[in-house]
Amino acid sequence: MxxxxxxxxxxxxxxxxxxxxxxxxxPASNALVxxxxxxxxxxxxxTGLDEANVENALIAGAxxxxxxxxxxxxxxxxxxxxERTRQTLVALAGAGALLAVxxxxxxxATGMVTQQAWIVWxxxxxxxxxxxxxxxxxxxxxxxxxxxxxxxxxVLLSLMxxxxxxxxxxxxx
Length: 173
Prior knowledge:
Largest sheet: none
Strand content: under 5%
Helix content: over 70%
Distance between the termini: 41 Å
């Protein structure tokens, strides 16, 4: 991928986060899927380190990334929309990584302690749900309401799967 096209992909992902672009606006590239999933994993690890030790943050990041791939691939396969998998994964993983890093940066910049960080995370959660709902609406050819329900279901399932690792112990101060 050329540098210029990398900037275009990043610009498109930013526009997805602003609800101005759709997953179908992204290239269907295996390499891009790999980069987006790696970014998603690393963003999850970074944000997980606020709550857990390195090992648990790595496990939670890997489990959430695998969950994203499994649910997306299975859902699109069941709807006979398998050809949309790569673009949808790039959109979900890439936008998720951008939003997670943005939220982490704001929490870090404000210097809020863990017990108060939810005040900063909450608006990002709503933004995340809106972006994922937007992506899923286009990927699955459903209404925005259904897309938002799917996004909420993913977040709840992700919390159930990763929560035990993230809440097992706090990182050392």
